[in-house]
Design a protein that fits this description.
By secondary structure, this protein is an alpha/beta fold. It folds into 2 domains: 213 residues, 3-Layer(aba) Sandwich (Rossmann fold); 110 residues, 3-Layer(aba) Sandwich (Rossmann fold), CATH 3.40.50. The protein contains 11 helices and 10 strands. It has a 6-stranded mixed β-sheet with strand order 1-2-10-7-8-9. Strands 5-4-3-6 form a 4-stranded parallel β-sheet, with helices on both faces. α8 links the parallel β7 and β8. The longest helix has 18 residues. It is globular.
């Protein structure tokens, strides 16, 4: 039967669930790990889901009109999803990005026709970032109030506050996991950026089975840049939420959904991403590596023997080739030592 799609908007979602058989065997894990491979979305990340949801909800409500420019600030994947969906629907797209993101992300966004504005080119924003001490919610709000929302004929998708973000996962990702496992799932693990993925999936699954455990991955203490450690290597797109002030948590994250916050360091995420590439032939990004590291640790807990763990692997490792994620000349152990030595030097200096 012939099946022809008319737009990439029809290709978002329905990503496969893969049993990580050799990863489980390699580490002798007593629990099963199933990977939701979000890089099967048309633009290779889970963010395609929220990009489509936010744009189409704005069209339905009349907030987005023909001729408008779509805009947002993003760590990369949401921007790529928005750029692609905007192009498919005929909207211009403007994106504000941190200068430290991988070169692949800048190239992909420009290839999709996006107007790319690095943070360093926004007057006054560098000082705001420095003063925020890692508060990306406050920095994003400053950017919205002082730049994006002052421009005419611009629709700001505002991914940190837009309810269409978690709604996308409540409508699609959660039901897919439930259907693909026939409801046989015990634990779900995902990383927190905006928190929409955890919130939407967790809300749907817990409504069907309240005993399902939702674990959210956040950066470990050595993977959070601060004013004292601005060069600290971080987990791309993953943000702390468990021990920060409520105003520093995106409204798109419902913390009541989360049963456990699991901290992961960047070198642990790096190791897991490299390991699963060799064991099961899947190339995943940095945050996905963090989720997989957490899943391995959770699978080894005695109370989880025989249980089924679903991990949401957010994107493809192809967007990280220039970052050193798969550079085997530098081992995860060396990355760990470098981070710990840097932290100790700062402590000694103070």
């Amino acid at each position: 039967m012939m099946t022809i799609n008319n737009s990439i908007t029809e290709l978002v979602g329905n990503t496969p669930l893969l049993r990580l058989s050799r990863f489980r065997q390699q580490f002798e894990l007593p629990a099963e790990i199933l990977a939701k491979l979000e890089y099967f979305n048309p633009n290779h990340s889970v963010k395609d889901r929220i990009a489509l949801s936010m744009i189409e909800e704005a069209e339905r409500s009349g907030r987005l009109k023909p001729g408008d420019t779509i805009a947002d600030s993003t760590s990369g994947n949401t921007g790529i999803g928005l750029a692609a969906i905007a192009a498919a629907k005929g909207y211009p797209f403007r994106v504000y990005l941190h200068d430290k993101l991988s070169e692949e992300r800048f190239q992909i966004l420009r290839a999709l026709g996006a107007e790319v504005i690095p943070f360093s080119q926004i007057e006054g924003f560098t000082e705001v970032l420095e003063q925020s001490d890692g508060d990306f919610v406050a920095a994003s709000r400053w950017l919205a109030e002082n730049v994006i929302n002052r421009q005419p004929n611009v629709f700001h998708t505002a991914q940190l506050e837009n309810p269409a973000n978690p709604a996308a996962h409540y409508r699609t990702t959660g039901p897919e996991i439930w259907q693909q496992t026939e409801g046989q799932v015990d634990i779900v693990i995902a990383a927190v950026g905006t928190g929409g993925t955890v919130t939407g999936i967790g809300r749907y699954l817990k409504q069907h089975n309240p005993s399902i455990q939702v674990i959210a991955v956040e950066p470990g203490p050595h993977s959070i840049p601060t004013a004292d450690r601005p060069e600290q290597r971080e987990l791309t797109g993953v943000h702390a939420f468990s021990e920060v002030l409520p105003e520093r948590v995106p409204p798109t994250l419902d913390r009541s959904i989360v049963d456990e916050a699991f901290p992961v360091e960047h070198w642990q995420a790096t190791a897991a991403a490299r390991e699963v590439a060799v064991s099961d032939g899947i190339l995943i990004g940095e945050s996905a590596g963090g989720v997989l590291h957490a899943a391995r640790a959770v699978a080894l807990r005695p109370e989880n023997h025989g249980k089924r763990i679903v991990v949401v692997l957010a994107d493809s490792g192809l967007s990280y080739l220039s970052t050193g994620l798969f550079n085997h000349d530098i081992t995860p152990g060396q990355l760990q030592v470098a981070a710990l030595v840097s932290n100790q030097q700062i402590k000694n200096a103070s």
